[in-house]
């Protein structure tokens, strides 16, 4: 009697398939094969697709069942900006004037919290003071009025000393309140005090970069900000990919192959190494900033950025 082959009992469900397909943009059939091969382990399934050349090093952010809006606010001197996401269950509520007004008020409140720069945790965000009350107190009140669940999801501030904080709002829902379905902030620091004309010019550079950030979805600022374990895992992956070719090539050639693929990885995940999608010819972001710096007679440092999109799963 022939021996029975050990078969996995796992069968991918529709939610797993949708999540992996959204993240990888791979064909449905390959997504199912990857999930079966990994027995439902999302990260392992994604790596399976990568090894087959079907997915890239950067997961596309998944979607969760959420509507809502992103609010942005940058002060008039362009030294500090805030970005906030608030979710609703339906787009209908996201278009509600009360929802939009509260999000705009919260965004300005976050901006005014000058003692803090960076990503807020939920607890700190909800106890910020708005009209002598905690921000979090306003959410259940609005839930009662609109009749569906609302979530104050996340908030970030970006600040500079002498440069500019630039912004871009995508798929605008309210131009007057600066709300949309996606948005980005970016901080550009300089080494000298700028004239008003120079500041306006730098802000234009920053706005284009913020537009690029919304489109390109970088994960990290630069190579130094990529976690060491992520770099090590990618290098191990690359070594596995070139293992067969490495058998017949000198060590220095193999090292160059690995370095080339690692450079490609950094070009996908780090903002400074990405090809600028908004500039003609798509030069590297670093090249665009160097050119702008030379024109302004200063150095330009890319200090921070943040990109939000409604309902985006935070990878």
Automatic annotation (TrEMBL):
Protein's cellular compartments: Mitochondrion
Stretches assigned to the Translation elongation factor EFTs/EF1B dimerisation domain: 81-312
InterPro entries: EF-Ts_dimer_sf, Transl_elong_EFTs/EF1B, Transl_elong_EFTs/EF1B_dimer, Transl_elong_Ts_CS, UBA-like_sf
Gene3D superfamilies reported in the protein's UniProt record: 1.10.286.20, DNA helicase RuvA subunit, C-terminal domain, Elongation factor Ts, dimerisation domain
UniProt key word Mitochondrion: yes
GO BP, one annotated term: mitochondrial translational elongation
UniProt xrefs under PANTHER family: ELONGATION FACTOR TS, ELONGATION FACTOR TS, MITOCHONDRIAL
Protein name: Elongation factor Ts, mitochondrial
């Amino acid at each position: 009697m022939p021996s029975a082959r050990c078969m996995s009992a796992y069968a991918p469900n529709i939610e797993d398939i949708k999540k992996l397909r959204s993240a990888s943009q791979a064909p449905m059939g390959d997504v199912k094969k990857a999930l079966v091969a990994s027995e439902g382990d999302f990260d392992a399934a994604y790596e399976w697709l990568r090894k087959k050349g079907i997915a890239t090093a950067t997961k596309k952010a998944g979607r969760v069942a959420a509507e809502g809006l992103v609010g942005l606010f940058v002060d008039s001197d362009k030294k500090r900006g805030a970005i906030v996401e608030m979710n609703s269950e339906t787009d209908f509520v996201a278009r509600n004037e009360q929802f939009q007004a509260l999000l705009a008020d919260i965004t300005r409140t976050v901006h005014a919290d000058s003692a803090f720069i960076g990503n807020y945790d939920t607890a700190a965000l909800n106890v910020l003071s708005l009209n002598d009350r905690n921000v979090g107190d306003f959410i259940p009140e609005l839930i009662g009025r609109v009749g569906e669940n609302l979530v104050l999801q996340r908030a970030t501030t970006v600040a500079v000393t002498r440069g500019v904080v630039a912004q871009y709002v995508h798929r605008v829902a309210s131009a007057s309140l600066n709300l949309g379905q996606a948005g980005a902030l970016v901080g550009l620091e300089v080494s000298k005090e700028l004239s008003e004309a120079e500041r306006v010019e730098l802000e234009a550079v920053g706005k284009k970069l913020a537009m690029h950030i919304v489109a390109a979805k970088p994960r990290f600022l630069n190579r130094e900000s990529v976690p060491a374990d992520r770099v090590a895992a990618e290098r191990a992956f690359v070594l596995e990919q070139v293992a067969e070719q490495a058998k017949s090539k000198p060590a220095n050639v193999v090292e160059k192959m690995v370095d080339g693929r690692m450079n490609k990885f950094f070009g996908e995940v780090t903002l400074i190494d990405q090809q600028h999608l908004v500039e003609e010819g798509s030069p590297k972001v670093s090249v665009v900033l160097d050119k702008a710096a030379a024109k302004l007679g200063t150095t330009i440092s890319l200090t921070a950025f943040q990109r939000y999109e409604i309902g985006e799963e935070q990878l």
